[in-house]
From TrEMBL:
Keywords: Cytoplasm, Disulfide bond, FAD, Flavoprotein, NAD, Oxidoreductase, Redox-active center. InterPro entries: Class-I_Pyr_Nuc-Dis_Oxidored, FAD/NAD-bd_sf, FAD/NAD-binding_dom, FAD/NAD-linked_Rdtase_dimer_sf, Lipoamide_DH, Pyr_nuc-diS_OxRdtase, Pyr_nucl-diS_OxRdtase_dimer, Pyr_OxRdtase_I_AS. It catalyses: N(6)-[(R)-dihydrolipoyl]-L-lysyl-[protein] + NAD(+) = N(6)-[(R)-lipoyl]-L-lysyl-[protein] + NADH + H(+). Residues 5-335 form the FAD/NAD(P)-binding domain. The gene is odhL. Residues 354-463 form the Pyridine nucleotide-disulphide oxidoreductase dimerisation domain. The active site is a redox-active disulfide bond. This is Dihydrolipoyl dehydrogenase.
């Protein structure tokens, strides 16, 4: 006999587990079904983000940055450490412990909030009246009036470079190297490629990134992308744009990548390890989307409206499996919105206010429109920026690369976009998100008192710069 619930959530990543918890907070009897297996094949909640994405990658980024500071930056502070070394296995073990703690934490949150949890792959079987039937791989079946699909995304496959999990890996394998490769090649110079490349470059690898796009970080502001490319090149990340991969040849000793540069000239790259980081694709496998009539768009994402309703009654979808940026925080907010809508409340999520962050060094973050986007649609704007080089706290930190740029409507002064490259950009961007959420003008931000000395003063000065009234440059 199948169990009945108010809501079935499929997927326990940031979209799914947050939706499930919010549903139970609102009095909805909820079950969350997930098929992720972690260490030793044990069920592990949290999806890609907690298991092999956001959290573990940031753990390794922090470890590698600490090593970089110790070996290159601390001498300027009068702190010297000779013959510093890295224990990669210990570093990876620390990362694994953080992952284990967080995934266990979600299990505890489920217990606290009375969310039922089932392990297995879910399949939408059909509808009996107003009730949906959902099957699980072990033959169990559950029923509910509402379904929230939060199945996330998977790594895009590159046919020219099939993964073997040892020499050729995706982001999952790149988080668990047992030692630093001497020569590391990465196909893809997006967020994943740059973050992972930065980790292993700091630990001693010679890193080369091969990117298909002729433009570097095309989604970012052009000035930010230009500054980032200059900074990464200075760090000795070799980045090639407009690349075509012809093929990959493996031997016992190395991986050889045959590629063509932006001019079509044949090139060859030999590496000890190859990371394939060419983006991610929505995960709808096994859901029976065709059988139940769940509509997908041309990119294979589940079609949804502004409130994440799908083509099927009482079926919602959130996160990477739908339109919009593939970001954990976007998925979580959509999960909250859907839970509140199911409970009869007013819910909303504004895709224009989703902050984008890259945890490289320097960090990169932005929210809203870029200058190139505004130019393309003919919106009149004004912009101001301020360099971290002129910020006292950045000088004290010894981290002065980059700037903050604020773009505002030329007529109303309402902030349209904020773009940051520099220290703690991931934290500073939240001030911009909050300002935009309340339709603030650049003058509102310029007239807000900011603590001194702080990195946030650069945001203040950038707001002043919109009307050409900066104080400190």
């Amino acid at each position: 006999m199948s169990k009945s619930f108010d809501v079935v959530v499929i997927g326990a990543g940031p979209g799914g587990y947050v939706a499930a918890i919010r549903c139970t907070q609102l009095g909805l009897h909820t079950v969350c079904i997930d098929d992720w297996k972690g260490a030793q094949g044990k069920p592990s909640l949290g999806g890609t983000c907690l298991n092999v994405g956001c959290i573990p990658s940031k753990a390794l980024l922090e470890s590698s940055e600490n090593f970089e500071r110790l070996t290159h930056d601390f001498a300027a502070h009068g702190i010297c450490a000779d013959n510093a070394s890295v224990d990669v296995l210990k570093m990876v073990a620390r990362k694994n412990k953080i992952v284990s703690d967080f995934t266990l934490g979600i299990s505890q949150l489920f217990k606290k909030n009375k969310v039922d949890s089932l392990h297995g792959r879910a399949q939408i079987l059909g509808r009996d009246g107003d009730v949906w039937r959902v099957g699980i791989t072990d033959g169990e079946e559950v029923r509910a009036k509402h379904i929230i699909v939060a199945t996330g995304s998977t790594s895009r496959i590159l046919q020219q470079a099939p993964l073997d999990g040892v020499q050729i890996v995706d982001n999952v394998g790149a988080l668990s190297f047992s030692e630093t490769p001497k020569r590391l090649a990465i196909i893809g110079a997006g967020v994943i490629g740059l973050e992972l490349g930065s980790v292993w470059r700091r630990l001693g690898a010679e890193v080369t990134l091969l990117e298909a796009s002729p433009a570097f970080l095309p989604a970012a502001d052009e000035q930010v992308a230009k500054e980032a490319l200059r900074a990464f090149t200075k760090q000795k990340l070799a980045i090639h744009l407009g690349v075509q991969i012809d093929g990959v040849i493996q031997s016992a000793e190395a991986v050889k990548i045959n590629w063509r540069d932006i001019h079509g000239a044949a090139q060859e790259l030999v590496a000890d390890k190859l990371i394939v980081a060419v983006g991610r694709v929505p995960n709808t496998q096994g859901l029976s989307v065709e059988a139940v009539g769940l509509k997908l768009d041309a990119a294979g994402r589940i079609e949804v409206d502004e409130q994440c309703r799908t083509s099927l009654p009482h079926v919602y979808a959130v996160g990477d499996v739908v339109r919009g940026p593939m970001l954990a925080h976007k998925a979580s907010e959509e999960g909250v919105m859907v839970a509140e809508l199911i409970a009869g409340q007013v819910g909303g999520s504004d895709l224009n206010l989703v902050p984008n962050v890259m945890y490289t060094a320097p960090e990169i973050a932005w929210v809203g429109k870029t200058e190139q986007q505004l130019k393309a649609v003919g919106v009149a704007y004004k912009a101001g920026q301020f360099p971290f080089l002129a910020n006292g706290r950045a000088r004290a930190l010894g981290d002065t690369t980059g700037f903050i740029k604020i773009i505002a409507d030329a007529n109303t002064d309402r902030i349209l976009g904020v773009h940051i490259i520099g220290p703690m950009a991931s934290e500073l961007i939240q001030q911009a998100v909050l300002a935009m959420a309340f339709s603030a003008s650049s003058d509102d931000l310029a007239r807000t008192i900011h603590a001194h000395p702080s990195l946030s003063e650069a945001m203040h000065e950038a707001a002043l710069a919109v009307d050409k009234r900066t104080i400190h440059i």
